[in-house]
Write a structure and sequence with these properties.
32% of the residues lie in helices and 14% in strands. It contains 5 helices and 6 strands; from the N terminus they run ααβαααβββββ. Helix 3 crosses helix 4. The termini are far apart.
Length: 182
């Protein structure tokens, strides 16, 4: 289902081409349609991979137009749906670039073009666990910080760069990979 959102045009499941019961004329029509539709999200994946990024921007307006049920689910349960979309985008990226897992472990889908904008002052408890787009100026933030997963270390003595190293404990990041500060 999600793979059909990677291409503009009507919903299309590529596996149906192999269905022996489908008559030849319909099969040719679908192949022609597939060849004529521009692969918008595949182009975005290729651009993302060309600069070794891990974030794929997905247009909410496009989803509302092509997959309205999926857009509704994203709005109602964004955390669960983003997990599903991240997994699907990672699988699709690895299908296009099988060795990309050596560069990035997973692909993160970002939702763009959300049509309704709320003010930071207007956020209420009803907005919890839902998809919101906010505008405003942030002057303070809580103690929630990004989690460090990979670290590179610069050697002060020889100026070489070591890494990447997977970071399991995020309490201390000032020591080198062997635990020493030298």
């Amino acid at each position: 289902m999600f793979l059909s959102t990677f291409r503009e045009g009507e919903e299309f499941d590529e596996d149906i081409l192999d269905d022996p019961t489908m008559d030849e004329a319909e099969r040719k029509r679908r192949r022609r349609l597939l060849a004529q539709t521009p692969p918008t999200y595949e182009d975005r994946i290729r651009q993302m991979c060309s600069v070794n990024k891990s974030a794929l921007e997905l247009s909410y307006l496009h989803l509302m137009q092509k997959e309205p049920t999926l857009a509704l689910w994203i709005n109602e349960a964004p955390r669960d749906m983003l997990d599903v979309l991240n997994e699907a985008a990672t699988r699709h990226t690895l299908r296009l670039f099988p060795s990309y897992h050596t560069i990035r472990d997973e692909i993160h889908v970002r939702i763009a073009d959300v049509p309704i904008v709320d003010s930071l002052r207007d956020l209420r408890r009803a907005h919890l666990d839902g998809l919101v787009k906010v505008s405003g100026v942030l002057t303070r933030r809580s103690g929630v910080f990004p989690q460090l997963k990979l670290a590179f270390y610069d050697c002060i003595k020889c100026k070489s760069v070591m890494g990447p190293f997977r970071v399991e404990d995020t309490t201390s990041h000032s020591s080198g990979p062997d635990g020493n500060r030298d």
